[in-house]
Design brief:
By secondary structure, this protein is mainly beta. The chain has one domain: Porin, CATH 2.40.160.20. The chain is built from one helix and eight strands, in the order αββββββββ. The longest helix has 21 residues.
């Protein structure tokens, strides 16, 4: 009898954590906020020039699946042989639909905003976006996102980017996010 009670105690001891893990993970709830941060940088092999960039967003979930976000990107370039340094940026509003696959949260959406700076014509932009968030714990996730930005006004000169940028540009982001 003592062995059976001890055995049942051991089973309960190991079953409790398994039962807790079996509960479904809920990534986002209505009313949740999220903050994302990403950065990049590069320089030449001679360290005589640099390019750095930062991206951030603040999002709000209206439902478990729909998010509204404000995104900001800033970039700084100072390359040897170029005509000095330059700043570029973009500010965008986005709406995304998240597919709830527990810790994996693929999403699709669209954004509209404004791109500005020294190396581009200041113009409105809009375009589709797609991405994936993976939760490493209940409040923190890593994410990857790709977007295509259509320029509303291509103008005659798009700076040093060249004629190909008159139709738009791809933007890729890899970063870290937090929800509360």
């Amino acid at each position: 009898m003592k062995i059976r009670i001890a055995l049942l105690g051991l089973i309960a001891l190991f079953a409790a954590p398994l039962a807790a893990r079996a509960q479904e993970f809920q990534a986002f709830n209505p009313g949740d906020w999220e903050l994302t941060l990403a950065g990049s940088g590069s320089n030449s092999s001679d360290f005589d020039g640099t390019t750095v960039g930062i991206n951030g967003s603040l999002g709000y979930f209206f439902t478990e699946n729909f998010e509204f976000a404000v995104r900001q990107s800033l970039g700084y370039t100072d390359l040897a042989g170029a005509n000095g340094s330059a700043w570029n940026g973009s500010t965008r509003l986005a709406v995304d639909f998240h597919f709830d696959l527990e810790r994996f949260q693929p999403f699709v959406g669209a954004n509209i905003g404004y791109v500005y700076g020294d190396l581009t014509n200041d113009t409105f932009i809009a375009g589709p976006e797609v991405g994936l968030k993976y939760f490493v714990n209940d409040t923190t996730f890593v994410f990857v996102m790709a977007e295509y930005q259509f320029f509303f006004d291509s103008g005659d000169n798009v700076g040093d980017i060249g004629d190909n940028a008159q139709d738009g540009q791809f933007v890729y982001t890899l970063g870290l996010g937090f929800k509360w």
